[in-house]
Design brief:
By secondary structure, this protein is an alpha+beta fold. It is built from 18 helices and 13 strands. The chain folds into 2 domains: 208 residues, no CATH class; 194 residues, Gcn5-related N-acetyltransferase (GNAT) (Aminopeptidase, 3-Layer(aba) Sandwich), CATH 3.40.630.30.
Length: 566
Amino acid sequence: MRTSDGRWIRRFFGGLLAIIGCFDVIGSLTAHHPLRSQVLESLLPADVSFGGRTGTVIAGLALLLLAFGVARGRRAAWQLTMIALVASVIFHVVKDLDIEEAALAAWVAGGLWWMRRHFRAASDVASMRRGVAILFAGVLLAAAYGIAGVWLLRTELRPGFELPRAVLNLVRSLAQQSAAYDALTDRAAWFLGSLPWIAYGLVMLGLLLLLRPVVAPAAGAAERERLRAVIERWGWNPISHLALDGPLSHFWIDDESCIAYRVRGTSAIALGDPIAPPDRREESVQRFVRYCDEQGWNCAFYAIAEAGPYRAQGFTLVPIGSDAIVSTAGFDLKGRRRASIRYAVRHCERLGLTFRFISGPDALASHAQQISEVSGAWLGGGKGPELGFSLGGLTTLRDPDVTVGLALDPGGVLHGFVSWLPVPARKAWTLDLMRRRPDGVPGVMEALIAASIQEAAARGIGEVSLGLAPLSLEGASGDRAYRALKDVYAGIDRFRRSRSLRHFKAKFLPEWQGRYVAVSSAPAVPEVLLALLLVHLPPTSWLALRLRALAPRRRRPQSHRWVGAG
């Protein structure tokens, strides 16, 4: 059976359990069969029948809690659901001779047992240990609370304290049966009513911890160096080099094939295409999908360079923008269409600016303070926080394989800098950081990138990627759905900065290549897109994000504004 079939089976049972859980809770509160109740009263005491009604509510709530874990294929959730369904069968019979509901619960339990091979996803080991500990601790604390409370309130309860009666009172309270004590004061009545709530709360907390998703193993320094060697041979996607910095985890197919990814919630987001020999990429994708399926994660690949192989495997493709690719061999400053770049270069030359290209560590060694100042001023100019995952930061400049371009005036003042990531399998560079002083020489970015392209050509680099123009769909598939997406993106004011970025990159007359997020399951697209946002954002509190959103924006001065993004 295919992985996608197993995913639909799990979601079917997860949805079915949620429906049954709702019916159990609502039915216990509203449904009543007088004739069946009369027959049951002749067989069982009334307290037992009411206890069955309470047990049905508890079983229904448990099924609602477990439904999500079952939909994710979690083994622990499957095991606990089987227990809850068996208990539900018994409670339905005891409650009101509800044979139909009992048969439904038994049928679902049988189906889950028959399909048990599809529920293999593990829960986080540390969370499972804490969950089991809390379950046991909850039982012990509930017992201690119930017994100690009766002893402390022995003058306010009737009859007096007796250990067997205190234990019986706890059991009857949990079963929602009449208490073994009579309260003589309001405080004693509150105590007797609080017993089940405290015990159930501790049990629910333990269940939530048992069902937490698996935490992906973090890659260590030795594993990152191992990945560096693979990238030097098979790094083909323009952002492959960021796998050494952005993602936290690595999935190794063999010694030559790796996928770098990060998990947010229940979604595993891979950075770019698999870093693998061309004939192993398709198998790498299949293996990673199976691995994510076993962990109960959604599977997605971000900024893939080729859509065909993923579409053939049934992935849902969501366009995210277009990559600007410039061939170094045919690049020059001639012609009307590159007039703005030519003017920027001549303007910088007249002011005496020079461009230096050195490795990242050398740039930090000679200009660390100025680089930090320029970067801080750039980020403080309304650009927002420094993002991660598929975007590098100043930490990437520590990498000796990163090339940094510096724009310096005759006095040694740094007016702007760019950083370029290597793409070995393409013999290419990818633009990562691009920052300048707010009061720097106008046009310095255009001139610095033009000089970078010429430097790349001199070093034997065949092409450079100017990076993704988000939400720009040039180069993406031209069917009706993508045209509709393009119209939507174009009409949203908050994406004006993306259009400005695309306009800046278009000055270099690039070839636009579409980039996509490939999601293994169409229903998971909204969840994956949310996870994608979270993996890019820096770790911060929700309160900090709200305060930042409410803060008034500073208006940038309009004087000395250069036409373009540079």
